């Protein structure tokens, strides 16, 4: 997959993309990440990318000209990806990013991220994007951090990125539920013991325990997710028994 970041702060990505899973994906040729500084597409001697808003008000607004030139240049140089690309603008007006969206975006060959700053974008810039995406109802300095978050989540969905082939399906939210509790050595720590089922070697029982724990954790901390999750009849029976206090 090719990732293109259109930003005036490409240096912000050095740390997060220079370590861990993202770096390994780049080193292994699974991810190809490029940066385009839209300040390079300005024509005035001071290289201004923003200006005051028409109608007055606080803050500065990103100008359309340099952004249009930058994004169009990226698209022209990567024409081979035209049939399988998505242009994303990082903006609070978009729907909140989810694991389902990460899986969807992982199906494209190219993602182009438009990262803003200051008060926001000139409204005409939105026409460059296929969609806007938000990572939550809070304010950040710019679009670079959301772009990093989305890239990390999407890259985990790409074949070969994670060390273990079954790592992604056991992550929280992968199937709409929170992850089950995990344990490692020692078997007992300060009076807290690892559940015996995990030491039994019975893989069927371990799978069942993990599924049930995932349901319980989700019910306790994010019950809203259960309303959207694809639950089997067995899942529903288990939850109903828990609700009624019946021993499973």
Automatic annotation (TrEMBL):
A single MF term (Gene Ontology): tRNA (guanine(37)-N1)-methyltransferase activity
Subunit structure, as described in the record: Homodimer.
Reactions accelerated catalytically: guanosine(37) in tRNA + S-adenosyl-L-methionine = N(1)-methylguanosine(37) in tRNA + S-adenosyl-L-homocysteine + H(+)
GO biological process: tRNA N1-guanine methylation
Positions annotated to bind S-adenosyl-L-methionine: 116, 135-140
NCBIfam families: PRK00026.1 (NF000648), trmD (TIGR00088)
GO cellular component: cytosol
Name this protein carries in UniProt: tRNA (guanine-N(1)-)-methyltransferase
Root EC class: transferase
Localization (cell): Cytoplasm
Superkingdom of the organism of origin: Bacteria
EC number: 2.1.1.228
One family name in Pfam for this protein: tRNA_m1G_MT
Functional summary from the UniProt entry: Specifically methylates guanosine-37 in various tRNAs.
Domain tRNA methyltransferase TRMD/TRM10-type: residue ranges: 1-228
Keyword tags: Cytoplasm, Methyltransferase, S-adenosyl-L-methionine, Transferase, tRNA processing
């Amino acid at each position: 997959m090719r990732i293109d970041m259109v930003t005036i702060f490409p240096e912000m990505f050095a740390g997060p993309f220079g370590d861990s899973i993202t770096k390994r994906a780049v080193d292994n040729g699974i991810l190809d990440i490029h940066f385009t500084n839209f300040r390079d597409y300005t024509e005035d001697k001071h290289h201004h990318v923003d200006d005051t808003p028409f109608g007055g008000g606080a803050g500065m607004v990103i100008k359309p000209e340099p952004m249009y030139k930058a994004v169009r240049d990226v698209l022209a140089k990567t024409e081979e990806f035209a049939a399988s690309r998505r242009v994303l603008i990082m903006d609070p007006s978009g729907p909140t990013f989810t694991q389902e969206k990460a899986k969807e975006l992982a199906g494209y060959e190219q993602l182009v991220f438009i990262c803003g700053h200051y008060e926001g974008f000139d409204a005409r810039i939105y026409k460059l994007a296929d969609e806007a995406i938000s990572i939550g109802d809070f304010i950040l300095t710019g679009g670079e951090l959301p772009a990093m978050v989305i890239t990390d989540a999407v890259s985990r969905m790409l074949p070969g990125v994670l060390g273990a082939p079954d790592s992604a399906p056991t992550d929280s939210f992968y199937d709409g539920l929170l992850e089950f509790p995990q344990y490692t050595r020692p078997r007992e720590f300060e009076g807290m013991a690892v559940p015996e089922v995990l030491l039994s070697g019975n893989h069927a029982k371990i799978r069942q325990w993990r599924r049930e724990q995932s349901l319980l954790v989700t019910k306790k901390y994010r019950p809203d997710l259960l309303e959207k999750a694809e639950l089997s009849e067995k899942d529903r029976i288990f939850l109903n028994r828990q609700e009624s206090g019946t021993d499973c």
